[in-house]
Write a sequence for this structure.
């Protein structure tokens, strides 16, 4: 990301020395030395990334400020979210909008759309991606996605959250396969609240903690789970701890941070579940069949079994966490 932006700046595509800069979508591991932290605000709703950027000295926010000289959009995988950020950038920027992204994330199609509207004033291609500069101020009809909305699937979602336009089949299978749950339940990686909605149908659940790293998804979950037994936590499921040990953990853990599968994420969720459960507690987990979670479950739980599944997915239960 920054190597292409730095080269684009060196080529004179834009001046990085703005009095105020806003960046949508920068991550904690990105090299942001091109930008002065004292004059830069980053919009980042993923809690681990948000926290990491703060540690690097940046002002980090959930919402964009009203104005900034330069606004940079780092194109995410979701085209809808990319359009939303670009439309916001066009309203906020007073001097220029810079959009940077990889071909695999759709920068070419975005550039074509913006060029057809007459908004592109310069571009620079490098490393299987592109940086484009736009003149600010134009309205982009239909590109803004300002708030969660109730979709055809019957729940509130918004652009960029996982499974925004459909119910994830793994979550659907797990919701249908859950036994009677009693007591304090935790939904690790709750997303926009599909599993939590079904968990709270059971009156035997006394309390439910929804733990989610994506602020936008958690914002949707608050609308989808309007139950007084629910508590919402913007946190990293890998290190979050409840005030009291839980009786049950339910999870459909993520296994991607980009396009590459990373089973270590799910393995970390399993370790976290074992750490927050009471001595006789149970974990219910759904996963794609190819993901190697059984060894981690055996490491962290005394009793492990597959309780349900179908050809693409398996539902695993771990009981009595090892200390």
């Amino acid at each position: 990301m920054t190597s292409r932006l730095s080269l684009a700046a060196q080529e004179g595509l834009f001046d990085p020395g703005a009095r105020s800069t806003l960046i949508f979508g920068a991550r904690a591991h990105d090299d942001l030395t091109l930008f002065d932290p004292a004059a830069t605000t980053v919009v980042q709703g993923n809690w681990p990334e948000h926290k990491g950027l703060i540690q690097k000295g940046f002002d980090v926010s959930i919402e964009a400020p009203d104005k900034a000289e330069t606004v940079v959009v780092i194109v995410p995988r979701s085209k809808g979210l990319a359009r939303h950020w670009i439309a916001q950038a066009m309203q906020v920027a007073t001097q220029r909008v810079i959009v940077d992204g990889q071909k695999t994330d759709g920068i070419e199609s975005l550039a074509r759309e913006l060029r057809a509207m007459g908004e592109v004033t310069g571009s620079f291609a490098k490393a299987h991606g592109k940086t484009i500069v736009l003149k600010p101020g134009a309205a982009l009809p239909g590109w803004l996605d300002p708030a969660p909305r109730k979709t055809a699937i019957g729940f509130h979602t918004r652009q960029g959250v996982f499974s925004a336009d459909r119910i994830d089949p793994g979550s659907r299978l797990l919701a249908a396969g859950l036994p009677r749950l009693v007591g304090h339940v935790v939904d690790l990686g709750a997303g926009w609240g599909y599993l939590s909605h079904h968990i709270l149908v059971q009156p035997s659940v006394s309390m439910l903690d929804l733990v989610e790293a994506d602020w936008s998804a958690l914002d949707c979950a608050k609308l989808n789970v309007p139950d007084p037994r629910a508590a919402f936590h913007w946190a990293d499921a890998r290190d979050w701890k409840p005030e009291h040990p839980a009786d049950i953990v339910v999870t459909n853990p993520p296994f991607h941070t980009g396009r590459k599968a990373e089973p270590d994420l799910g393995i970390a969720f399993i370790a976290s579940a074992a750490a927050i459960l009471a001595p006789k507690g149970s974990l219910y987990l759904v996963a794609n069949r190819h993901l190697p979670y059984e060894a981690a479950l055996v490491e962290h739980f005394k009793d492990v079994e597959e309780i349900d599944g179908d050809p693409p997915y398996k539902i695993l239960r771990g009981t009595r966490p090892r200390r």
Summary: The chain has a mean pLDDT of 94. The two ends are 42 Å apart (CA to CA). The first strand starts at residue 21 and ends at 24. DSSP finds nine helices and 16 strands in the chain.
